Amino acid sequence: MSPSLYPAWTLLHIPHDSREIPAEVRQQFLLSDAELALEISRMTDHLTHQIFVDPLGSATAVCSEVSRLVVDVERFTDDALEHMSQRGMGAVYKTTSHLKPLRRDLTTEERDWLLRTWYHPHHRRLETAVTQVLERHGCCLVVDCHSFPDEALPYEKAEVGIDRADICIGSDPFHTPAELEQSFVDAFGRNGWRVAVNDPFAGALVPASRFQKDRRVHAIMVEVNRKLYWDDQKSEPKATFSQTASEVRLRCSEALRHYEPFLFA
Question: Looking at the domain assignment, is residue 4 inside a domain?
């Protein structure tokens, strides 16, 4: 059997891959079926599970069960702490990627139900998975797996026409040692892809209970420009998808193996 790509102390977090909109949530949205399908296409990190997860199953993966339009598990639930809530895109989105109304006004009870049904269970799974990796290996590295559109969506409020990198590496001042960030930058750069750090998106997720508290939990975000693998016009993967996905996994594996001596120093 071939060796596993990822070390056992690795955990893959895949928050925005799902396109699932439960029937009981659909009635909250103000969009037509066609408009909703387009919004899902714009906001989904398409096929990131297939891109990042090792087919040999060597690393734990924690994936959101529903679309980020239902709840966004990477946002703080308290809008006072979540800067994206100012754009109507906190844990429960009110607006679309084009800053138009997404859903009707919810009662407090309806919002709480969404969080209780999908947001909090997701974070309990993440907490449990990180704890199990820590118990087995004494450390845990969370790889936060994403993709991003080549052209900025209006909600990003980014400068129009900026040439975006192929790969964005996101880091956290507490949970991302300099050696970890550099390992990923170097690994992806050796492939010839243009790599940026914390641009267009920044940060790396860890469980709330460990955030800025537990230095055994390290984190890195890897964002893949969708132009490398996704055809927006056809809303389907490009013919080169399998090759690109394999290369992303290999670059991640190389970065992790290079970082391993620093992690256990």
Answer: no
